[in-house]
Amino acid sequence: MSLESVIEGWREVRNGLIDEANQVPADKFSFQPTPDTRSVKQLLQHLVESQKFLIGEACRPDTNLMRGSFADNIKQYAPHVRDVDDKDELLNLLQASMDDAASQLASAADEMKNTMKRFDGKEMPKLAFMSFAIAHEMYHRGQLTVYERLLNIEPVLTQRFRKAFGESPP
Questions:
Q1: Secondary structure (3-state) at 125
Q2: How many CB atoms lie within 10 A of CB 61?
């Protein structure tokens, strides 16, 4: 797996996430399926925060995911993300943070050849760790599609498959 293919794959995932988030009306960004789950806005903020933290740490020669608590790491790597709560601004932030991540990863190409310890203490190649970061985003993209269904919005990916197979809308 090359660094370029990792970046390209992550861009594809991020573009799909942005497409899904774009479908949710701005007045529904505060929607939470239950009181103890994230809202649409909080879910998107979490993804940007996580990406900034994971990329920031992986690109360092002294990578340490346990450098501090998640909250402390967010203060370091993504201090103003939660200030962004407007739909359009959040969608722009999702795109900009992906562009920043791609640039950081490309600049740290040699560092990505090294290993790091995961959250569980096991050693793994940094480039392979990026698969975790992408999977984390896909996990939350799936959550967003559940939110869409609860809001009676058909997910973009479902629409694309339906169209590809010549199926009519439900």
A1: strand
A2: 8
The first and second tokens of residue 160, run together, are: 């694309």
In this structure, what CATH number is given to the domain that contains residue 110? 1.20.120.450
Torsion of CA 125, 126, 132, 136, to 10 degrees: 170
Q: What is the number of structural domains in the chain?
A: 1
Asked if the structure places residue 24 within a domain, the reply is yes
For the residues 43-63, what does the mean pLDDT come to?
A: 96
Q: What's the domain range around 59?
A: 3-164
Q: Is residue 76 part of a domain?
A: yes
Q: At what angle do helices 126-150 and 3-23 cross, to 10 degrees?
A: 10
Give the pLDDT of residue 118: 86
pLDDT digits (tens, 9 = 90+) for 89-145: 999 999 999 999 999 999 999 999 999 988 888 899 999 999 999 999 999 999 999
Residue 169 inside a domain? The answer is no
Q: Which of 42, 45, 44 is nearest to 32 (CA)?
A: 42
Picking from 136, 128, 111, the residue whose alpha carbon sits closest to that of residue 57 is: 111
Coil, helix or strand at residue 119? coil
Residue 154 in domain:
yes
Start-to-end CA span in the chain (Å): 39
What share of the chain in percent tops pLDDT 70?
A: 100
